[in-house]
Amino acid sequence: SESERYGWSFVFERQLTAQANANSHQAVQAAPWWIRVDGASWRQPDGPGSDVFADGRLDHPVVHISWTDASAFCNWAHPTGGRLPTEAEWELAARAGTRKRFPWGSSLTPKGVHRANVWQGKFPSNNSASDGYVGTAPVKSFEQQNRLGVYHMIGNVWEWVSDYWTITHPQNDGGEPLQDPQGPPTGTERTKKGGSYMCHKSYCNRYRIAARSSNSEDTGTSNLGFRCASSSELDVEGS
User: Fold this and answer.
1) Among 228, 227, 193, 197, which residue's Cα sits nearest to residue 208?
2) How many other CB atoms are there within 10 angstroms of residue 75's CB atom?
3) What PANTHER family does this protein's entry cite (predicted)?
4) How does DSSP classify residue 84?
5) Residues in CB range of 167: below 8 A, 6 or more apart
6) pLDDT tens, position by position, for the chain (239 residues)?
């Protein structure tokens, strides 16, 4: 991965291991909760002293994966057509034919039940973990989020999609949304969707299906992962 080649990656300060905390001091000026950690990678997601194998986290989403890493993995894992989903495909899978704010409906916690792993409390100083998790959660830790059977489209970790970043969703010349839109052919950053365990209404509030953000292709962080896609004849709207 690129974080392994670079020798470092960004870790959320409250997730740092004791070893990483003692040896890491360079924070991002605009977001001081992000710490550059030498040795942080998919294998050591919280920095040196953490290990996905020894810590029993093989069922958690992989993190510290750049867009380039994610795209290459999807192509390798599914050589007959594996790839990152487009933003439109990602939203279609999350909505499952509805127009709700979240995959399961209009309320973040319907009847007080947590359906996603997002920040609980005041960001970034206090996380009550009332949803059961402080950092990443196992991929099947909550019930399926919609009738397509997907997990964690919202929360847990951000997910790369294939599109280059634009400020707004792609539109036609009349300003109307496009059917199965594609992002621009070139750009400097790639789009990510879904929000993460760090999202809260007082901070990023990007755990809605329509919400979006971006990073450079070579960026890896402790709250950014991916899922792969491949072409299918499934009629989601009519099923």
Assistant:
1) 193
2) 14
3) FORMYLGLYCINE-GENERATING ENZYME, SULFATASE MODIFYING FACTOR 1, 2
4) P
5) none
6) 999 999 999 999 999 999 999 998 788 988 999 999 999 999 999 999 999 999 999 999 999 999 999 999 999 998 888 999 999 999 999 999 999 999 999 999 999 999 999 999 999 999 999 999 999 999 999 988 899 999 999 999 999 999 999 988 766 666 666 677 888 899 999 999 999 999 998 888 889 999 999 999 999 999 999 999 998 766 655 54
Phi, psi at 204, each rounded to 5°: -110, -30
pLDDT at residue 95, as a whole number: 94
What was the pLDDT predicted at 204?
83
Instruction: Count the Cβ atoms, other than its own, within 10 Å of residue 32.
Output: 10
Give the start-to-end residue ranges of the domains of the chain.
Answer: 59-239
Fold of the 59-239 domain: paralog of FGE (formylglycine-generating enzyme) (3.90.1580)
Backbone angles phi and psi of 224, in degrees to 5: -130, 120
Q: Which two tokens stand for residue 162?
A: 């294939």
- Contact, 150 vs 94, CB < 8 A? yes
* DSSP SS3 for 13: helix
What length does the chain have? 239
- C-alpha distances (whole Å) from 213 to each of 29, 55, 116, 191 are 19, 30, 19, 6
Alpha helices, DSSP H, located in the chain = 2-6, 18-23, 67-77, 87-95
Using CA of residue 31, residue 33, residue 38, residue 42, what is the dihedral sign?
A: negative
Give, in order, the Cα–Cα distances in Å from 68 to each of 88, 205, 223.
20, 26, 16
Contact 78, 130 (CB under 8 A): no
